[in-house]
From TrEMBL:
Keywords: Cytoplasm. The lineage of its organism: Eukaryota, Metazoa, Chordata, Craniata, Vertebrata. The keyword Translocase does not apply. Residues 114-178 form the PLEKHM2 PH domain. It holds the Pfam family PH_PLEKHM2. InterPro entries: PH_domain-containing_M2, PH_NISCH_C, PH_PLEKHM2. This is Nischarin. GO terms for biological process: Golgi organization; lysosome localization; regulation of protein localization. It comes from the Eukaryota. It comes from Gavia stellata (Red-throated diver). Its main location: cytoplasm. Residues 241-347 form the Nischarin C-terminal PH domain.
Length: 348
């Protein structure tokens, strides 16, 4: 340890997504290569001497206690824990965090030091991993509200790779074996006797950590919700969700010194007749076992919806991934022109 292959892989993965802004301290981390990166991990992050760095990933993260603050993080997976290296500015983003982050060294703000705070989730405390629709994100759940983090990878490959690495690392943990399971038939295994509903697909790892994947019902619920937003004009049977992707809506900030733009996280859903943007709660659902009450907001909240028939043109940027798309719609929105003419010219 570390092998040549691991060094090369971690160096390749140590790249900040170009569209996301990070602080100077995280830019320093992103500039490290190979051996320097491993030494940095052991010198500044690792909690025990004999743990090994196995995987590195840059991702936006959300915490259960602060569901409205999405922050960039360098996610480091070792044989002992998952480390989230965060911008120091995250601590000041929300005044309700004072109990969540025990802030020390506050007098360092004006010095030449660039601080990062590191959130640690020990693998022994890990209870479940929920994978989001189409592997766009995943949520790691520990034993309390402080230990719930969602990684918004917005990339099925990154999600899949992290999950594979996490399973491999969990296999190394020595845990007391679970009691022998009682043989169950298919229906008692997957069905809830009270509701008759199929539960989400669960894979229980040998380390007793649950990996929970969405089932078809989640897409069905989403299709029903989308049909509701379309004022019931569409037959639910004929409604197909063609695309579900976590994206950003670009809002240009006018009057600023530079031509800056702010990125608003949105869930884009495309059906055969409409294009929707939703504000989605990625952290609160499904409800953790210790939750006393349901979340304050729904999982999906409609932000914008347009008919495909009103789409005039699509402008594409020339840059590589992530691709910028501009959808230009006709001025006449949500109005059927012929119907209006009929009303105007032929009475009531």
């Amino acid at each position: 340890y570390p092998s040549e292959f691991l060094m090369q892989k971690i160096t390749e993965d140590n790249q900040i997504p170009v569209h996301l802004h990070v602080s100077v301290s995280l830019q320093y981390v992103a500039g490290l290569k190979g051996n320097a990166l491993v030494e940095f991990f052991h010198g500044n992050i690792a909690e025990v001497e004999n743990e090994e760095l196995r995987h590195l990933m840059w991702s936006s993260v959300l915490f259960y206690k602060t569901p409205n603050v999405e922050v960039m993080a360098c996610v480091l997976l070792s044989t002992k824990a998952v480390y989230f290296l965060l911008d120091d500015s995250f601590i000041h983003a929300d005044e309700h965090q004072s109990d969540f982050w025990n802030k020390e060294n506050s007098d360092c703000e004006n010095s030449s030091f660039h601080l990062s705070c590191c959130f640690v989730l020990k693998l022994n405390d890990l209870q479940s991993v929920n994978v989001g629709l189409f592997d766009q994100y995943f949520r790691i759940t520990g034993h309390s509200a402080d230990h719930i983090v969602t990684c918004l990878t917005r990339d099925s490959y990154n999600t899949h790779t992290f999950i594979q690495q996490l399973m491999a690392v969990l296999s190394l943990l020595a845990r007391t074996p679970s009691p022998e399971p009682v043989d169950k038939d298919f229906y008692s295994e997957f069905g809830s006797k009270n509701t008759g509903k199929m539960e989400n697909y669960e894979l229980i790892h040998s380390s007793r950590v649950k990996f929970i994947y969405p089932n078809e019902e989640e897409i069905g619920d989403l299709a029903f919700l989308v049909a509701e937003k379309m004022d019931g004009l569409t037959n639910l049977q004929s409604l197909n969700i063609l695309l579900y992707v976590l994206a950003f809506q670009v809002n240009h900030v006018e009057g600023s010194a530079q031509n800056t733009s702010s990125l608003q996280p949105k869930t884009l859903i495309l059906t055969s007749s409409d294009l929707f943007l939703f504000d989605e709660d990625y952290i609160s659902y499904p409800l953790p076992e210790f939750a006393k009450e349901p979340p304050k907001r729904d999982k999906y909240q409609l932000a914008d919806g347009r008919r495909i028939r009103d789409l005039d043109r699509v402008l594409m940027g020339y840059q590589t991934y992530p691709q910028a798309l501009t959808f230009v719609f006709d001025d006449v929105q949500n109005e059927d022109l012929m119907q209006n003419l009929t009303l105007d010219h032929f009475g009531e």
